[in-house]
From TrEMBL:
Binding site for GTP: 227-232, 246-252, 271-274
Chief place of localization: cytoplasm
Gene it is expressed from: mnmE
Protein species of origin: Sinorhizobium sojae CCBAU 05684
Protein name (database record): tRNA modification GTPase MnmE
Subcellular location: Cytoplasm
Length: 439
C-alpha cells in the first residue's frame, strides 16, 4: 500500500440502494471536492451540491462532507459523497475519481489501516470495528462495541503504564544506586503491584472462553444412533429444511451445520451421521467426522427414539454437558418414563421444542448485571496475554534486578503487541485483510 496516494471507494452496502456513500482519503481529498463540486464545503457540515464531471456534465446531486485531517477517521484529509445508490451513478463518480492523478481505488481495509498508521485507532480497536461490522447477535455487538470503543485498549494501556513505572524504578536503582534520592530497594514498592498485575492478567485470560462463545458461537452437536430424529430436529430448530429426512437409516453422511441466534447469543448447531458400526465407506467417513465434531462440542444433544438407549461411546470432556432428548414421542407404541430423558419432544407435532430451547438457553453464559465486555476475544490477544503473564511470573521468581527488569520488558512488549505498539508489521496484512473495501 502506498500511503502517499489518495484513495477512494464505495463505503456503503451493495448496489442498488437508497443512498450510496463514497469515501475519499488522502492529500488530494480537498482538491477532489473542488473538482467535482465547484467549491470546498465548510468542514464537517453536510452541504447539498451538484456533482459534475471535469467537462461540467452533471452526474448527480447529493450531500458532500469534508473532514480535514488530523480530525478525521483516517487522520488524513477525508471527504464523503452521499449520492443516490444506483449502479450507474456510483460507477460514473468512481470513474471520474479514477481520472485524477494520484488517485486509486482503496484496497481491503485500507481506510482502517491508515487510521491505525496515523494513531487514530490501535489494533484492538481496529479488530473490534471488524467484529462490529460482522456482528449478527446482540452479544456479538456488545463485545465488538467494547473493543471498538477502546474498552480493552484502556485496560491494556493501564497495565502497560504500571509496567513502565516498575521498570523505571528498577532502572533508576541499577543506574543511580549511589544517589541519595534513589530508594535503596524497589522490592517493597513495586513487587506487590507486579504480583497483583499478574493475577489480573490471568483473571482476564480466564474470560477468553466466554468471549469465544460470544464471538464464534456455542457449538451444539446433535448425536445419536441412526434414525433417531437428528436431522428432523435440526430442521425444526432452524425452521427450514437443511437436512434430508427419510426413514432409511444412514441418510445423513456428512456434518451439517446451521447458525442460530438464541437469547442474544450465536449458536452453531451440528447434525451428525448416526453412530454405528458399518462397512459402507461413505457412511463410515461421515461417522468419523461426527466423532471428530463431538470431541469439540460445547454441548451435546443425545437423541434416542427408544427408552433406555442413550449410548455415547465417544470421548467427551468432563465439563461438556449432555442433554438426553427423547424423540418421536407422538408414537403410541413407545412408553417413556419421566426419568428416562431430560427432554421429550416430537418434531412432527412440535411438542417439547420450547422445553428444549429453554434447556439450551440455561446452558448459555449468564451475563446478567455485567456492565463491561472487556474480554480477550481473539487467539492473538490470548497468546500475547499469556506471554505477558509468563514473563511476570518469571520476574517474581528470578533473582537479580537486571534479570527481573528484562522479564518486565518482555511482559511490556507482549502487551504492546496486542494494541500494535511494538513489533506488529507481520500482523497488519492479516488483520486488515478481514475488512471490506471502503472500510
Amino acid at each position: 500500500m502506498q500511503f502517499t496516494d489518495t484513495i477512494y471507494a464505495l463505503s456503503s452496502g451493495a448496489l442498488p440502494a437508497g443512498v450510496a456513500v463514497i469515501r475519499v482519503s488522502g492529500p488530494g481529498a480537498a482538491d477532489a471536492l473542488v473538482r467535482l463540486c465547484g467549491a470546498l464545503p465548510k468542514a464537517r457540515t453536510a452541504t447539498l451540491r451538484t456533482i459534475r464531471t471535469r467537462n461540467g456534465e452533471a452526474l448527480d446531486s447529493g450531500l458532500v462532507l469534508y473532514f480535514p485531517g488530523p480530525s478525521s477517521f483516517t487522520g488524513e484529509d477525508c471527504c464523503e459523497l452521499q449520492v443516490h445508490g444506483g449502479r450507474a451513478v456510483v460507477h460514473a463518480i468512481l470513474d471520474e475519481l479514477s481520472q485524477i492523478d494520484g488517485f486509486r481505488h482503496a484496497e481491503a481495509g485500507e481506510f482502517s489501516r491508515r487510521a491505525f498508521q496515523h494513531g487514530r485507532m490501535d489494533l484492538v480497536e481496529v479488530e473490534g470495528l471488524a467484529d462490529l461490522i460482522a456482528a449478527e447477535t446482540e452479544m456479538q455487538r456488545r463485545l465488538a462495541l467494547e473493543q471498538a470503543g477502546g474498552g480493552n485498549s484502556a485496560l491494556y494501556h493501564a497495565w502497560a503504564r504500571r509496567l513502565t513505572h516498575a521498570r523505571a524504578l528498577i532502572e533508576a536503582e541499577l543506574d543511580f544506586a549511589d544517589e541519595d534520592d534513589i530508594p535503596g530497594s524497589v522490592s517493597a514498592s513495586i513487587w506487590t503491584d507486579i504480583a497483583a498485575l499478574w493475577n489480573e492478567i490471568d483473571a482476564h485470560v480466564d474470560e477468553a472462553s466466554l468471549a469465544e462463545i460470544i464471538r464464534d458461537g456455542l457449538k451444539i452437536v446433535i448425536a445419536g444412533e441412526p434414525n433417531a430424529g437428528k436431522s428432523s430436529l435440526l430442521n425444526a430448530l432452524a425452521k427450514r429444511d437443511i437436512a434430508i429426512v427419510t426413514e432409511i437409516a444412514g441418510t445423513t453422511r456428512d456434518v451439517l451445520s446451521v447458525d442460530l441466534s438464541l437469547a442474544g447469543f450465536s449458536v452453531k448447531l451440528y447434525d451428525t451421521a448416526g453412530l454405528r458400526e458399518t462397512a459402507e465407506v461413505v457412511e463410515r467417513e461421515g461417522i468419523r467426522r461426527a466423532r471428530e465434531i463431538i470431541g469439540h462440542a460445547d454441548l451435546i444433544l443425545l437423541l434416542s427414539e427408544k427408552p433406555g438407549v442413550f449410548h455415547l461411546d465417544e470421548p467427551v470432556a468432563g465439563n461438556v454437558p449432555v442433554i438426553r432428548v427423547a424423540t418421536k414421542t407422538d408414537r403410541p407404541d413407545t412408553a417413556w418414563a419421566p426419568a428416562d430423558a431430560d427432554v421429550f419432544l416430537s418434531t412432527k407435532t412440535g411438542a417439547g421444542v420450547p422445553d428444549l430451547l429453554q434447556k439450551l438457553t440455561a446452558h448459555l453464559p449468564d451475563l446478567a448485571g455485567r456492565t463491561s465486555f472487556a474480554m480477550p476475544s481473539r487467539k492473538r490477544h490470548v497468546d500475547c496475554l499469556r506471554q505477558a503473564s509468563a514473563a511476570l511470573e518469571r520476574s517474581l521468581a528470578t533473582e537479580g534486578l537486571d534479570l527481573q527488569a528484562e522479564q518486565l520488558r518482555l511482559a511490556s512488549d507482549a502487551l504492546g503487541r496486542i494494541t500494535g505498539r511494538v513489533d506488529v508489521e507481520n500482523l497488519l496484512d492479516v488483520i486488515f485483510s478481514e475488512f471490506c473495501i471502503g472500510k
